Amino acid sequence: MKLQNVRNLYFILAIVSWLLILVDDIAVIHFSRAFLPYSDVSINILLSTFFLFTFLGFKIEIGHSRSGQFNDLLWQVFIIGAVTVLISLSIKTVGLLNHNDHFLNDPLMTNVLYHINIGIITVFLANGLYVWKKMILYQKSKITDISWHIFEYMCLVSIASNFYYFDINDPMFLIVSSPLTVLGLVLAFNLKWVAFLNYKQKWRSILLLTLIIIICLSFLERVYEHHIISYLIIDLADNVFIQAMFGFMLLNCITALLVLLFNLPTSSVFEQKFGEVMLFQKLHQSLQVGEKEEDMYELLLDSSMSTVMADAVWLEIRDSKGSLKAFQNKKIDEFDVFEIKKALRKNQVNITSEPQYIENIQEYPHTEKIKHLNYKSFLLIPLSSNNQVLGTLVLLKNISDGFDKEMVDIIFTFVSQASIAIKNFRLMDEAIQTERYKEELKIAKDVQQSLIPSNLFLNSHIEVGVFSKGAEDVGGDYYDVFELSPSRYAIVIGDVSGHGTSAAFNMAQMKGVFQSLISLDLAVDQFMIHANNALSRCLEKRSFITLSIFIIDTEKQLIQYARAGHCPAIILDKELKTCTFLEGKGLGLGVSRTNIYEKYIQKYELSYSEGDTLILYTDGLVEAHNPARDEYGYERLKEIGLESIDLSSRQMIDNIIEDVQQFTGSAQFEDDCTVLVLKFS
After folding, report:
1. How many CB atoms are located within 10 Å of the residue 299 CB?
2. Per-residue confidence band for 348, with pLDDT thresholds at 50, 70 and 90
3. What is the DSSP letter of 237?
4. Of the residues 387, 413, 433, the one at which a domain ends
5. Most buried in the list 196, 457, 559, 576, measured by CB within 10 Å?
6. Which of 408, 433, 458 is the last residue of a domain?
């Protein structure tokens, strides 16, 4: 059954219970309790079911309503209270206008009218209870949630007090109602919703709460007014449940009213803070609403100026080269800005490198030409991102020491967020500029394959074998062979950070750089230095390349090599049956993008003999994992290399790959894997 149908059923049952109570009251008046021995029991049962179904109906009605505005919730309590109290007053007025004493003192009429009051009071209290539940449990804690459920169950249990008579002046009445009162008081102090009201909403809430309190007191006055009537069949003044509900309503209204009154003096401050948060959020969301970088300038100017109540402001934006890209100003002329900047320079105030706060510029020397402007305090904050200066924001006030620490902190927050947004706009612009290459990047795999040589025959003195397999469609492993002369060859093997199209794109740039440098016939260390300089300019900041380069002279049987953070190659001496790792210092290309890179690279040289073998590989080989997450490692590679020293280059590669796959238990590699074996003859 849908909740709406359940709610309707509860209300129907409540109405039926109310009507049956009315019938029971009339029967008692006409026939007296002597002829109806079970009338008290039936009335109490019907009264209890009326209370129960009315409250359960409002629990569903209000609990699933979507209104999240606290003023709207209080307005709902007030409207229902106002309507019900008007009905109650109308009933009282009818009695007063009828001057017939028999009518006023008639037990039947008195009980019927009081019976109507019971109905409207119950509706008012049920609605109020569950409206306050929604407000009390706003941003609830676990303890608050548990406390409410206990309170709610205790309220339902207290309905059973209908079957027992407790005079309001009886200590037992106090004992029974005390737990509800104490728990209701505890819940009444859960007023987190108050903090989310602005100044205007707080005043409206104060008015509504005052009116609700008046309505509660009006109903209580009606209840106690009839308490002295001896022939009243149902007396709410002695009803623990109803009195507890009135107490709960009044406690919540009074505590909320007091908290609101105490919060009023600080409301404007909180609203200002909230406005600053909203401005910050607007800055944060600027990228998501399709704005341009120029729109960010205007937003930053308006936000900063309004937040600190500056008299003037200007903003300078610079491009990646440090040149002036944009200038915006408010409440100050460009010529005046020029004169102020000139005065600041004369006083050696740098407005582009670090924040500056000038309490009174008029006290500085060399300010004669700007004294007529009447600006005194200056706040200068550079915009920067990733150590790159993007511009400068300057705020001016006509009073000295016009910026307190709180204002400065807020502006720093705005500037920081705006800097990130501006930098992101620029990165987006760069991405848009490369959109034209989107179709080319779709065939990145074909591009990568075209970058890797298909024919690795060098000469009759070198037998070459190769294995290369990417973990993704486009991997980062790269190798190439360049012929310097009929007897001299340059071989490079490397690993571009990342995968996918970015790795292929970087690989294409790398190949272009290498082809340009190879034609210069540089020494291996100079090759690395020049390659690092070139790639540092084109690689993304997070991208780098590990690389090894070998220049092999088959005539002199000599190898020159340099290593830029790549896996150490292996040289196998066939005669001595030894395996040597060609280690040496070297930093990956693009890791250091300064002139100090040459300190981290070095040239090495060694000779080889006929039958020796050179093994080149990428980290995907030695870092292959078995199910226990152990790495294949260098030692296993060394052992399989020595075992295969008498085999051909192709056979040696097959042995190595088979050994790795046996170790990992899989034919697939987690990372790109490349192996080159060069056997000298």
Report:
1. 18
2. confident
3. G
4. 433
5. 559
6. 433
Give the Cα separation of 91 and 219 in Å (integer): 13
Q: Is residue 560 part of a domain?
A: yes
- What pTM was estimated for this model as a whole? 0.46
Q: Which two tokens stand for residue 477?
A: 């492993």
pLDDT at 280 over 80: no
Domain that holds residue 165: 68-271
Q: In what order do the strands lie in the sheet with 673-680?
A: 462-469, 673-680, 613-617, 569-573, 578-582
Tens digit of each residue's pLDDT (9 = 90 or more) over 505-519:
788 888 888 888 998
Element (H, E) at 493: strand 488-496
Burial 113-130 (b: 16+ CB within 10 A, else e): bbbbbbbbbbbbbbbbbb
Q: Is 321 part of a structural domain of the chain?
A: yes
Structural domains in the chain (count): 3
Domain assignment of residue 634, yes or no: yes
- State the pLDDT at residue 552: 94
Q: Does 53 fall in a domain?
A: no
Residue type, 102: H
Element (H, E) at 316: strand 312-318
Phi and psi angles of residue 328, each rounded to the nearest 5 degrees, phi first: -135, 145
CB atoms within 10 A of CB 209: 22
At residue 1 the predicted structure's pLDDT band, cuts being 50, 70 and 90, is: low
Taking the C-alpha atoms of residue 592 and residue 645, their distance in angstroms, rounded to an integer, is 38
- Residue 182, number of CB atoms within 10 A of its CB: 11
Amino acid letter, residue 554: T
Identify whether residues 427 and 472 lie together within a single domain. Answer: no
Q: Please report, for the domain that includes residue 613, its CATH number.
A: 3.60.40.10
Q: If you count them, how many residues does the chain have?
A: 681
CATH number assigned to the domain comprising residue 382:
3.30.450.40
